[in-house]
Amino acid sequence: MEANGCVSLEEIEEYNYVANQTFNTKEDFFKFYDAYALHKGFGVRKDKVSYKPSTKEVTWRRFVCSCEGYRMEKHFERTDQKRQPRALTRCECNARLDVQRSASNGIWYVTDFVDVHTEGLMILKKRRQWSFGLVGFVHTRLWT
Q1: What are the tens digits of pLDDT across the range 114-143?
Q2: 17 located within any domain
Q3: Terminal-to-terminal C-alpha distance of the chain
Q4: Which residues are in the FAR1 domain (predicted)?
């Protein structure tokens, strides 16, 4: 989003590109969204999932920014910790991608996509540079 609050044509095209994706497996969707997130400067983790009750087959999955949400309050009050708690890394970022499997043909498609990322850029690791080209994004060196 630009400073004046308007959305550019490129941002609309990018949103439509992601929102109109379909894949044969949810793992392919995860790889796609992980590469997209890397291009945008954030990490991804798997969040909620829904199963078909009769077969326990996954029918819906949510992928979120790795900094989505906050640590639960109970973890701050624990007295039985044997090591130092990890650093706080959650910042309530709302970037997410929900995908659902079509019952008729088995194709996975996007049901909800939020592309607003509210935290700072993550430090890119060199070992992950290869994934830019997998989904057609242009590689840019953000750390130089």
Answers
A1: 887 775 544 444 334 444 444 555 555 555
A2: no
A3: 24
A4: 31-118
